[in-house]
Structure formats: C-alpha cells, structure tokens
Amino acid sequence: MAFMKYLVPALAVAGAAVAQGDSCKGPKTIENPGDASALASCTTFEGDIEIAAKVPKGPITLEGIQEITGSLTCKGAQNLTSLAAPDLESIGDTFLLSGAIELRNLQFDSLTEVGALNFEALPNLQQLSFTKGVSKAKNIRISNTDLANLKGIALNTVGDMEISNNLHLKEADVAQITNVTGFASFSANHEELKISFPNLESALNMTFRNVSSVEIPSLKKTQGLLGFYSNFFEELAAPNLTSTGDLVFADNSELTNISLPILETVKGAFQIANNTELKAVDGVPKLKTVYGALDFTGSLEKVELPGLDEVRGEFNLQTTQEFNCDALQKEVGRVGDWVCKGKVANPQTKDGESGGNGKGNKPTGAAVPLNIPSGMTMMALIGGALGFAL
C-alpha cells in the first residue's frame, strides 16, 4: 500500500507530462483565441501552427511560445485584426501571412529568426513590429501591403528578396545586408521609394524598378544581372563595383549620369536603352571586357570607353544625335559585329527593339512591362519581368 501511495502521484505527473507534450506538437489549427491560449504552456512547439481562415473577428495572441520548429501560417483570415506572439524568438520554416485584409497590428517583440518570411495581400498592415529585428531569414517576400518602410528587417545575408506592389513604401533601408545570395527585386512600390544598401558588398542578381533612389556604395560585384528599369533617379553611382554579370539601364526617364569608375568586367551583356535624358556614357573609364553584347541606344551625344579592350558579342550603338562613330571605333579594341549609327530617327537595339523614343511612367499599382531583347541572357529576361516569385 505504501508503494501505491507514491506510485499513483508519480503516474499522474507522468501522464500530465505526456499530455502536455502531445499538446505542444503539430500540426495545430487556431480557430479562436481559446485555441491560442491553450498553447501558452508550450515553450517549444514542434511542428506547424496555422491560423484558420474562419477565425472570428478580433486578435489572436500566442503567449509563452518561444520557438516554433515548423511554420506559422495564416491564409485568408479576413477577420483577423491583430496577431501577436510576444515571446516567440524563432520560426524554423515559413512565416506566411496572406489575405488577412483586416490585419492592422503585427506584434512580435522577440522574433529574430525565420526560415522564410512571406507577407502578401495585407492592405491594412502599416508597420512591422519586430522589436528586436529579424536578423536571420533565407528568403523575404513582401507584396501588396500598406507598409511605409521595412524597419524590423535586420538581415546580414538574404537569399531571394522580393519587395513589390507596396504602394506606400517610401523607405527600404536594409543597412545590415552585406550579401544577397539569390535574387533581389524591387518593383511597383511608391514612386518616391528610396533604397539604401550601404553595406552590401556582393549579390547574385538584383533588379530595381520604379524607384527614386538606389544607394549601393559598397557593392563590389554581382555574379548575375544588375538591372535598372523605369526608375526616376537622375544618377546611379556604384563607386566600388568591379565586376557584374548582365548590366542593364532601360527606360529610366530622368537618368543623366552613370558612374561606375572602377568597373572592369561585364560577364554578360551591357545594355543602355531608352534613357531619354542620358546624353553621355563617360562614367566607365576602366571597363576592359564585355563578354556579351554591348548595346547602347537613345539620345547619346558622347560615349567614352578608353579602357575597353574587347567586346565578345555584337557592338551596337544607335542614337538620335549626331555622332562620331569613327573616333569611337579607334578607341575600342576587339569587337564582334560592329554597328554604329548617328542621327537615327528610331534607334534600334541589336535585336530590333525600339530603344530611343519612349518615356518611363510613374507606377500605377502594377509594374510596367519591358521587352528584353532575345539575345540577352536568361537572367536579363528574369530581370525584365513584372516581379520575382519566391
């Protein structure tokens, strides 16, 4: 009997522990605030947590949980007004919010690490309340929100990064990022969007569309595409850039100056097309080699390439202005097919696309399509697309 006296409480404690352990394993669907409160004893939740689409109107708060090993997702919860997890530090897989049209408050004071962050169709979300800052994430996608800035994103390295169709987004200061290992794309946000990557040193692929300012003072190289399409800045400077893949400036209606003072190698095509205010290309004095085509069209009056030794693809320059092609040909080293024409009414890119008479337009909620010549590489084709899906 004495043995039973101690055995029964021990079994009860063990049973409670097992029950608690089961309650902290997923998948788990949150259908109301009570379901969220039931997880408050779970320091670590093993598996996925989903906020149900038919959750009742009001807030959902996940108290107590410090780690979710799987994903935290919410798709189509149109009545959700607030989502909070004050103690949550990490989400092992994806943090997905989609179609929560009434969501106005997102409070994650302790969150610093996610596998991937994907926010889309959140028309009333105006700020990211990530108090400590998300410093680790493989991929970031933020699309169709009401955000005015990206405060709370504090990454050092990111894979794919898409920021698109956020019509009130005016600031994208991602100062901590030093490396982009995938594809970074900015498109169809507010026309006054200013993008600052002060510490970015290397990237795989980057495209910028419909922005008023791009700062990349520390960028040294990109392996793939570096593309600027339909932007509104007057100058683009990359003082430390030495090498890139495809390099494209197209339909930038206010661009007057390109400054790439130590750029030596373009390991793809180098295209300048339809930048109607750009009269001179004289800011690439160290450029030595273009692996693909060199394709300049527009209203150019002066092109200086004193260091250019080789263009392995076609050299195509067509301008509406009077131009001394003979002088340029003497300056340039070995090229493939040579085409140089001045006083052309409708300058054509090397693949026959118009490259001189259009004007860039302000965004109207959707990115402006751009025709990329078929001779460009696949990376350039991707860069000209409306957006980049992760």
Automatic annotation (TrEMBL):
Keywords assigned: Cell wall, Glycoprotein, Secreted, Signal
GO annotation, biological process: fungal-type cell wall organization
Signal peptide boundaries: 1-19
Subcellular location: Secreted, Cell wall
Top-rank taxon: Eukaryota
Annotated GO CC locations: cell surface; fungal-type cell wall; plasma membrane
Keyword set includes Phosphoprotein: no
Pfam families in the cross-refs: Ecm33 (PF12454), LRR_5 (PF13306)
Segments of this protein annotated with the region Disordered: 346-366
Protein name: Receptor L-domain domain-containing protein
Species this chain originates from: Helicocarpus griseus UAMH5409
